[in-house]
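Table 4 source record.
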Amino acid sequence: MKPMKYKRVVVAKRGPPENLQITECDLRDPAAKEVRVKVLATSVCLPDVQARYGLGPFQPKVPFVPGYAIVGTVDAVGLGVSDAAPGDRVAGYLVLGGYSEYVYLREDRIIPVPPSLNPAEAVPLLLNYIVAYQILRRSAKIKAGDKVLIIGASGGCGTAFLDLGRLAQLTMYGMASKSKHAILAEYGATPIDYRTEDFAEVIRRAEPGGLDAIFNGMGGDYLDRALPLLRRGGTFVGYGNPLSTRATLGLLAKMFAFNLLPNGRRIKLYGATAFLLFNRKPFVEDWAILFRLLQEAKIRPVISGEFPLLEAARANALLESGQVVGNLVLVAPEMLDASGTISAGPRRPG
């Protein structure tokens, strides 16, 4: 009897989206303490692109399957699995491997997902929303009425900050290109056009007493320009993948040196994957909170596009175009309607 096959999308060599190729694999039984998950949705995010080009330290060797996070249904379980059963809705924070019709997860790496949630809306919570939530709550420790600046406010993480920031009753300023200002306004944030406006001057005029927090996922020279905008007791949080080991070490050195100064301000760095390696418990707790907020319609990820799972190259090309607002998601065939098109169109904040 011939083994069943499944398809996945592989980075065959470094470079542009056309280097993503569809390959077939044998569908094996899950090993002991392992579950097999049929992927219903997987996110398309900047770390996928950086890994494909080999940008930054610790990138995988080719060939590899991109895909940071998935939401799916347990299809089969291995011997000794007690916390999952076929039919369960689960998620996985993979870092690699999500662009695939099936994935295999260790039982202790399963993240429970309420079955009522739309997988395409749930999957952005695994990376973009956990980053924003933990930076807001655990790093910056924001409170209602705080004044914050979001550098790069229109992408997947940026719109997560906007969504959660509105819920937390923050006064928000967001930097994005002019064409993306509408989404910032929908969340009640004051838009700043980084191409034509000096963001530091805008903030100084609007908030002469300074900001409580600044969130930067864009790198660049924003650190030096933004730090003077913080009030005493304010926090600058940098997140995102540095593009070189040298840049990483330089940022760490600057953080340690600055934090020794008696100026009442702090620089913090956040990296979800690194933190998760040391302590999984806060992530499990926070994902459960985020799933509940989505169930209660208190948050709603911005989904700008959904693509069939095997059309990852097209989705990656769109992400690289710089035109995307919010999130892009790859979905399984059963998420499509009878005509073969995406059953749910672009979703905006409710």
